[in-house]
Amino acid sequence: MKYFTEEIWDFEGYQNNLLSLKEFLNQETFKFLQENSFHDGMLSNITIHNSYTGETEEIEDSIVSVSAKIKHWNGHIYKLFWDNVTVYHLDFNIARNRAVETNEILFDRGLDEWSHDELTLKNENTFRHEIILFSKTTLVIECAHFSIQSI
Questions:
Q1: pLDDT digits (tens, 9 = 90+) for 49-97
Q2: Confidence grade of residue 111 (pLDDT, cut at 50, 70, 90)
Q3: Domain coordinates of the chain in residue numbers?
Q4: Whose CB has fewer CB within 10 Å in the chain, the N or C terminal residue?
């Protein structure tokens, strides 16, 4: 992460970064990212889609995509799509999700709520989306296309 770390919380820098993504995102996605965040949202599912069947012709682009469903803190439901995924990394360990006061593991919280994220452009053809959940779970996805859809 470049804009949001334990040492840095550069909201203005991140907003400038989002402006540079405008031409690469659809209007609904760009507007959501400019006006909202998924902070305190609850990730209900995340799915990795593998289109390869063994009979698939050789494809130049990645045939892996990822989708997720999240309930925003205001109750609205959104679906997130990452297409042509080249990197997918989910680092989850329930032992890291502990109550501050007691240090007890919060088994009943699962992945827990969305803390913060950064969507950046790795190069002109690849987004990098880094997501941190309150359980200290990290999710990193690099892809050609990213979109958010209200459902």
A1: 988 766 656 556 667 999 999 999 999 999 999 999 999 999 988 888 7
A2: confident
A3: 11-51+76-150
A4: C
E-state strands within the chain: 42-50, 64-71, 77-91, 114-123, 126-133, 138-150
Residue 112 — left, alpha, or beta (φ > 0 → left; ψ -120 to 50 → alpha)? left
What span, in angstroms and rounded, lies between the C-alpha atoms of 139 and 132?
7
The phi, psi pair for 105, rounded to 5°, reads -70, 135
Taking only the tens place, the pLDDT of each residue in 14-28 is: 999 999 999 999 999
Element (H, E) at 11: helix 11-20
